[in-house]
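Weekly sync, protein design subgroup
Attendees: M.S., D.O., the rotation student, P.L. (late)

Item 1: inverse folding check
M.S. brought a backbone from last month's batch and wanted to see whether the design step gives back something sensible before we order anything. D.O. pointed out we never logged the input encoding, so this time it goes straight into the notes. Structure tokens as presented (290 positions):
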């Protein structure tokens, strides 16, 4: 895997002074404990349970019928035991991400879109099966964090709301090119920086960094797991747009062929998946959203 430092070193000067929300202390403790030979689940469960909203969100997410677990969690401790600390830590990170930003209508809209992509990505990971090699929890976590850099740019650059319509309307260049031209950096770079500082997996941070660039040369895209995460989330985004759940853009026109190649989906398989996804979005998606 190409080094993340190498991938965004040319933009380090742009990131200087960029205020990234600090990694919450409880997440630091979870990651530290998960690296122990014998993690103390009871202590970590107690830490998470001190934040009632965090605990409730974790249990609700774990018990999603599309999460793939065979039994329901009734406590934080059970959720940790069922998931394992690696997956639980990333799910907690996704919950804490939203809590790290102020409540604003524009940010609420961004988080709502991210949650839809996360749930849809999770559904796709389950639907496509184990042969895909993407765990539903990983797909969900990537969906939550994929566009987190937008929230930071929204807060730090007063002109950012005027940039996104141009980026969505761009039919040839990547979405991030419009951001780069206007601001000197883009949400993928900023999001990868946050993921790294929050100690998420290198694969997840790499995928955030590259999620608008997978149409590039294959020799620069050497993380197969990261590519699958990107492709699943982009397909989720496309299906949500087609069903009127997200604002439209042209990213599928640029990235769709590569995504279908990565996911090994031919036209009939895609059409069948899209039909099933439409039924899920109408019937089940509203029930799974917060």
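Designed sequence read out in the meeting:
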């Amino acid at each position: 895997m190409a080094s993340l430092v190498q991938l965004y070193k040319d933009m380090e000067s742009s990131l200087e002074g960029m205020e990234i929300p600090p990694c919450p202390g409880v997440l630091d403790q979870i990651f530290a404990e998960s690296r122990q030979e014998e993690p103390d689940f009871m202590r970590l469960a107690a830490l998470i349970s001190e934040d009632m909203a965090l605990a409730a969100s974790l249990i609700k997410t774990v018990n999603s019928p599309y999460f793939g677990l065979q039994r329901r969690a009734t406590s934080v401790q059970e959720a940790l035991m069922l998931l394992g600390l690696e997956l639980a830590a990333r799910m907690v990170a996704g919950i804490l991400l939203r809590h790290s930003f102020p409540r604003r209508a524009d940010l609420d809209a961004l988080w709502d879109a991210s949650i839809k992509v996360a749930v849809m990505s999770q559904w796709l990971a389950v639907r496509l099966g184990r042969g895909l090699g993407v765990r539903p929890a990983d797909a969900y976590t990537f969906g939550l964090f994929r566009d987190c850099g937008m929230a930071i740019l929204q807060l730090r650059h007063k002109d950012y709301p005027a940039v996104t319509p141009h980026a969505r309307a761009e039919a040839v260049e990547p979405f991030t090119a419009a951001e780069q031209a206007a601001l000197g950096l883009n949400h993928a770079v900023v999001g990868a920086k946050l993921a790294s500082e929050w100690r998420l997996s290198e694969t997840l941070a790499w995928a955030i960094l590259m999620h608008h660039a997978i149409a590039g040369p294959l020799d620069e895209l050497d993380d197969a797991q990261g590519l699958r995460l990107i492709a699943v989330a982009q397909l989720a985004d496309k299906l949500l747009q087609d069903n009127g759940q997200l604002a439209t853009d042209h990213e599928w026109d640029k990235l769709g062929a590569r995504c279908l190649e990565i996911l090994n989906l031919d036209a009939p398989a895609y059409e069948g998946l899209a039909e099933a996804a439409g039924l899920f979005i109408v019937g089940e998606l509203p029930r799974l959203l917060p």
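Discussion: The chain is about 70% helix and 0% strand. The chain has a mean pLDDT of 86.
Action: P.L. to compare against the previous round before Friday.
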